[in-house]
Amino acid sequence: MFKSSKIISNRLKYVNLVSNVARYGSDKVQICDLKSFEEIPGPRSYPIIGTLHKYAPFIGFSGDYDVEKLDQNAWLNYRRYGSLVRETPGVNVLHVYDPEDIETVFRQDHRFPARRSHIAMYHYRMNKPDVYKTGGLLSTYAQNGEEWWRLRSTFQKNFTSPKSVKSHIESTEIVIREFINWIKERNVSHNEDFLPYLNRWNLEYHFPVIGIVAFNERFRSFSPEEQDPTSRSSRTIDAAFGSNSGIMKLDKGFMWKIFETPVYKRLADSQTYLEKWQLFNYLPIFYRVSKDILYNRIHYFEQPENGDVSLLGSFLKQPNVDLKDVIGVMVDILMAAIDTVNINNAYSIMHTAYSTSFALYHIGRNPEVQQKMFEEICTLLPTKDTNITADILSKATYVRACIKESLRLNPVSVGIGRLTQKDFVLRGYLIPKGVSMKRIGYKH
């Protein structure tokens, strides 16, 4: 009886949505055929725990999903339930697999798209009002809409322009050459796990871009001193993994909101370490930004003809920008150097190393592709001393195609998320406001 009443209520709500649905083929949707969100196929949901039993075994439950293996979870969901899969791990989640359905979801986007992500990180920031004004660009659980757009539109233009990217090709090439020379000197064994070295390379690779662009600083993680397990870069990588590894688990869970769970404690402990170690000479890494040090840096930028064109300097010249905004965005940039390739996607340093590893793997497994890449590179770089330029990169069409194909075969992210901001209809189901939509890119 309750279920029937809910369906009838949803059908009445649908009458108010006809004008919106008409844009997406309402002539094919019959009001009498409208189904509720609860009727979408998916794992069985129980009171309180919802579908969390699929991710962690409880008494009487198998826990046949693994929170560490999102691609396998996606494949199981698709095989068992189809192209739309409903879950309720504390909140309503809808996994979308079909490209046409994904397009429909994107068309529902408000002027300010919303998503549910980095909840624990948002909680962490909001508990430090002396440092942060907002959740920043990464933590978007309670920070969406106009405030998020204000931050993005104000700051992002300074570091995403093609001109900015081109201006740092030279420094990036220097790091890559250092990495290649380091491999030669290290005599890495054919049987040795190469991923830790790629992690370190990605740390060093992104910090020339982030460090030089933002702070005019180098991390030098391949120096003999920084190779030591107790060094700054080694411990930073370890702490970054300790922080990043809990993000997805904490986004799915809720117990950490009640008491400090082991996963949240690891996240907090890792961030505590990152707060105490200064990544740069004048700005501590991640979350405890020293305002006194930053104020000194601000005074430096106020000096005429200081010759520094870093992002920090450009941000401080922005009108109507609060110092806490600058602090938050600079911390986001630091986190992006370890946690993401750009601050709008969840590509962690381990995922960047993952991408590099699979690109090298696919190239190594396909000798004909390797030969064709080699020929293109030899044409563009006729001598070993030829420097890479923006023009040369633009002509490396085959290399770029190989990278894209590798990412297609082994995508680094489970998908793109959205939080529905209004009711809409998808495949005859009424999707209510507030559902966390996950666009899935599982491995074929």
Automatic annotation (TrEMBL):
Assigned keywords, A-Z: Heme, Iron, Metal-binding, Monooxygenase, Oxidoreductase
GO MF term list: heme binding; iron ion binding; monooxygenase activity; oxidoreductase activity, acting on paired donors, with incorporation or reduction of molecular oxygen
InterPro entries the UniProt entry points to: CYP11_CYP27_families (IPR050479), Cyt_P450 (IPR001128), Cyt_P450_sf (IPR036396)
Cofactors that this protein relies on: heme
Signal peptide stretch: none
Domain of life of the native organism: Eukaryota
UniProt record similarity statement: Belongs to the cytochrome P450 family.
Protein name: SFRICE011718.2
UniProt source species: Spodoptera frugiperda
Encoding gene, per UniProt annotation: SFRICE011718.2
